[in-house]
Specification:
Blueprint: H1 6-32, E1 49-52, E2 55-65, H2 70-75, E3 85-96, E4 104-105, E5 110-113, E6 119-120, E7 137-138, E8 143-144, H3 150-153, E9 159-166, E10 175-180, E11 191-196
Length: 198
């Protein structure tokens, strides 16, 4: 066999080398990136955190509650949903950023919105409900639910926001959870939005 022509061996090697360099560069960007990041203006997906007023919010799971189920009954001890409606729990965690100089408060202005723009307000939950999401101050690095609480160790791992939604409206997907930030003089408040997996 004769010697291989340089033009035939150099091109594949060059392509392989460029491919390896690209992989290294891309992996470096991923490692140096921010796991809280999402496309601005788009809702974050469940499992992705979004920062608002010094607090990282992360939706873990959204699901319908079956009050006949022993696990779900502990989340809400109220009456059954009216015929044609269901209870849907949004379980999330809210953590104050570690580098804050003072406290940050979780938002009390939360709603669900369907694709048609219809809004759903959270149901009030009993003060005794240990699984309920609440507006409260957090010290730097502190989370709701607290890492040592029963809620944090529960199956959902998050504090619950409860909605009652008609079954027919569930067809108007996608639903978004909107968390409104502090009022700002002359500017609309920022909103952290999450696409709910209903």
């Amino acid at each position: 066999m004769g010697a291989a022509r340089p033009g035939l061996t150099t091109a594949p090697r060059l392509g392989l080398l460029l491919g390896l360099v690209s992989m290294v560069l891309l992996s470096g960007c991923a490692e140096g990136g921010d796991d809280r990041a999402f496309i601005p203006g788009d809702p974050a997906r469940e499992g992705i955190a979004a920062e608002l007023d010094g607090v990282d919010y992360e939706v873990f799971i959204t699901r319908e509650l079956n009050l006949l189920d022993p696990e779900d009954k502990q989340y809400y001890r109220g009456p059954p949903a009216p015929p044609g409606s269901g209870y849907y729990g949004v379980f999330l965690r809210a953590c104050a950023l570690d580098d804050l100089e003072g406290e940050a408060a979780t938002s009390g202005r939360i709603k669900a919105v369907d694709i048609r723009g219809k809004e759903y307000e959270p149901l009030p939950l009993s003060p005794e409900n240990v699984f309920a999401y609440r507006q409260q101050p957090l010290r730097p690095g502190e989370c709701l639910p607290n890492a040592a609480s029963a809620t944090s160790f529960g199956p959902t791992g998050g504090a619950m926001i409860l909605f009652r939604i008609p079954f027919l409206d569930i067809e108007n997907r996608p639903f978004e959870l909107e968390i409104e930030g502090k009022s700002q003089a002359g500017r609309p408040p920022r909103i952290a939005a999450f696409e709910l997996d209903l």
